[in-house]
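User: Last request for today: this protein with pyridoxal-5'-phosphate, please.
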Amino acid sequence: MSYNVNEKGYYGEFGGAFIPEMLYPNVETLRQQYLTIMEEPSFKEEFDQLLKDYVGRPSPLYFANRLSKKYNTKIYIKREDLNHTGAHKVNNTIGQILMAKRLGKKRIIAETGAGQHGVATATVCALMGMDCIVYMGEIDIARQAPNVARMKMLGAKVRPALSGSKTLKDATNEAIRDWINNPVDTHYIIGSAIGPHPYPDMVTRFQSVISEEIKWQLKEKEGKENPDYVIACLGGGSNAAGAFYHYLHEENVGLIAVEAAGKGINTGESAATSVLGKEGIIHGCKTLLMQTPDGQITEPYSISAGLDYPGVGPMHAHLYKSGRGEFISITDDEAMAAGLELTKLEGIIPAIESSHAFAVFEQRKFNPDDIVVINLSGRGDKDLQNYIDYFKL
Amino acid sequence: MNRIHQKLQEDRKLLSIYFTAGYPNLNDTVPIIQELEKNGVDLIEIGLPFSDPLADGPTIQESSTAALKNGMTTEILFNQIKDIRKTVSIPLILMGYFNPVFQYGVEAFCKKCSEIGIDGLILPDLPLNVYQEDYKAIFEKYGLINVFLITPQTNDERIRQIDDASNGFIYMVSSASTTGAKTGFGEEQTNYFNRIESMNLKNPQVVGFGISNSDTFNQATKKAKGAIIGSAFIKHLTKNGTTKIDEFVNKIRI
Ligand SMILES: Cc1ncc(COP(=O)(O)O)c(C=O)c1O
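Assistant: Here's the final one, the structure of the complex with pyridoxal-5'-phosphate:
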């Protein structure tokens, strides 16, 4: 079975481009050109150079000694938190801003949840001297204040999404509406492995640098490229897609995707899409999403803004449905405890999104000689206030 | 013959009105349809509200949110209009987003529409290629006309494809925008209207988005067969409820 996108834009039965005609010219141009552009030597060179000199790649693969002892297995942490701007999101925004330039676009729009993608987009726009507008749910603006300030300082306009749940889903709606209203000069930098084809595949390819590096780094450290497991948290699915990409067809590598259970799967306040979702259409693709029996998209909940999304990218829907991926959901409380534990044991404060991935060690046993790579998608600076409030520090 | 085809043959410019089902009150659907017909409207688009209406501006978004809060569902809408053909003969089109239709089951949805006497569907986020590969046969089996959109950015080749795939009318989105975003037409629209006219398409065109009064209606229908009013009518409903629909309609066609 293939886990890559096919020529029609589908992963198994998921994916496609369910977009209104107003978006067709832009999405179709992108579809026709993205692979050609990405394969141009000059594009590759510029992308690689920026990842190295500007983002600070390769990001380290760090053997977490004390965490490994505690859980009696071999844990390597992929340090995406050390990237410039503090998360994996910048891998994608660097790629997409170069794409936008080659497509002749002058104005950039983006949606953001935790603000990491917004900051990463505002950053590359500053770097390239392009106009930047970031849509962000009103609730997220309140809970991720440091990132809002950073975006503004970087010169972006932050526009609040006031509809629906006032979180990531609604920010995405507003960004899509902006694109409909500005079809000629604007490129939409989607921040996760979601949206109409070719976005999930394009974002995944830009993020695939994560697993590309894991392969040679693990070879250096362990003498083999393949771990037994790769763990990543799952919002829309971009960091997981990047961490899984080069292992998708290595069937002996277990792929563990960690969703946010919020206050608990059955509390009505959750974002665990694989458990609570059904096949449907959200933001231009067919995938699993949380919805009423009537097909209205429901409002998710997670303590982490970056995981507070009612769908998953189509690649992950396919990994779930085919059984290739193992899906685990983690509550707010479990994630917060795991975040604090990582801080105490390894001296690393993770983003709350990433904390969800670390909570897997309490949920699931690994063998002492298993090699487990966990993707630390972002750092916790933006969440400091949330940690302080939660633990009354 | 489908009521839409019949209507398109009439020798006059057509006025089409969109409203969101379940707004302002849950049970306003049937009275609104009856009033619109009584006052000489030619086509009605009944909006099936959706939680995430991507192609709509604030006015229709808010009406959809309110309709859902009022309790509107696909099933309730079908129940409200199940006997509609006993009282009205105006062509009726359901307009909505694809996910609610997909959840209902596309075939079950089409079957129900045909039983009720719905004449066509507009599903902006159901793309041409998916329609043709997966659903065209079902729509045709139940005698439903599927209406596609074009915009000023749609190139000639794509317009030809859409014209070939259509068998009723083409929904000409007047400008690159969400609904209700722009009012009035400028040079871009004139060029676009002229370009479409010169293409001699086999399907007539009905212009939508940005039409709010007799001025814009007349401009839009100079070349096109008809025009659709949405947001402006929703605003009327917000202000007046289901009263004074006659005044609203009469002011458009003067
Ligand atoms: C640090 C971090 N991790 C993970 C995510 C979730 O997104 P994705 O699933 O696309 O990686 C976000 C999103 O904002 C984030 O900021």
